[in-house]
Amino acid sequence: xxxxxxxxxxxxxxxxxxxxxxxxxxxHTMESGQRKDSDxxxxxxxxINMFTAEFNGSKVFEAEIEPAxxxxxxxxFTMRVPESGTxxxxxxxxxxxxxxxxxxxxxx
Amino acid sequence: xxxxxxxxxxxGLALAGAIAASAEPALEETLEIDGQEMITxxxxxxxxxFDTVISGWHYRTPETxxxxxxTFVNPAMxxxxxxxxxxxxxxxxxxxxxxxCHGDAAESMKGxxxxxxxxxxxxxxxxxxxxxxxxxxxxxxxxxxxAFDAADQKALVAFxxxxxxxxxxxxxxxxxxxxxxxxxGKEIYYTRFGQLDLxxxxCHxxxxxxxIRADHLSQGQVNGFPTYRLKQADLVSVQNRFKGxxxxxxxxxFEPLGDEAMxxxxxxxxxxxxxxxxxPAVRQ
Lengths: 108, 284
Fold this sequence. Notes:
heterodimer, A: about 110 residues, mainly beta, Immunoglobulin-like, 8 strands, about 0% helix, about 50% strand, B: about 280 residues, mainly alpha, three-stranded mixed sheet, 11 strands, about 40% helix, disordered N terminus
């Protein structure tokens, strides 16, 4: 599998109190644990099991992810922007890896 | 008894009306990809059975159509990214990558995807992107050709065709024996195959806009290939789609990239003349 790389689409600027749309995507095979390889051996589960977004340190979005979620999970949500700050996204892999990405939003 | 019969009759009519209405392609919609407008309806070239050629995008549900409007959301763009990596990766005994000869794909490959299949004099047949890439790999790079439908092949084809996004499809049929291959492709298009006795035209010419069971038949245009199909959750090449369609008629599919399939790709691509390259499109 190619290395997982997070991608986010966040507006760089927003008006105070504006509701913005945030789009996120990470490439991941999301191996469910239900499949077998060509020799009949079970392929162990390996999925992204948690996705969170924090704005200036407080959580604004969280998703617990189960094996039925398809490959390359995409999350889109909206949030109100109270002030300038940084939004930080975190994806947690079953193997313990943590992938993260940050982006600043400036309120004008 | 009479009242009940009438009531059932009315309900039946309403239902029939709903099904007929939902089968119409959404022709009033326009497709913009990241703000760039695509040509999804174009006047048909001379000798074409239709007045207007219509992209398969119009035949899909609003949700599926929306997936194609933003390259961030389009699931196939991961393949395009992979294709860009391959473009810049050195492989083979000659120590070259695609970029070693062709440089920046955004410049050198612009328009290339809109005019393939293209006549290849050396091979004496039309080359599509898959064949051209394999030719380059063997002749120029000293690398192994891709096996048909290898993930990297689809990624690279999608990346190169994506450089022509929005440009109208147009084949040069005057080169070499393109016209002969086009004729052969046309013959295949109208020939009924398989236990179900269906030709391409049975569905995509005579019945496009109607349902075949749960599927909404389009004109069968290939301007968006390789296409992301939600059903397979994967990028699907045009030659693979031919295989799937012919298999569904319960016939033996043509050999992918073989002469019959290349003749068919030439003819079918011509049928979409004037439509924008949408690669990678998103379909059901």
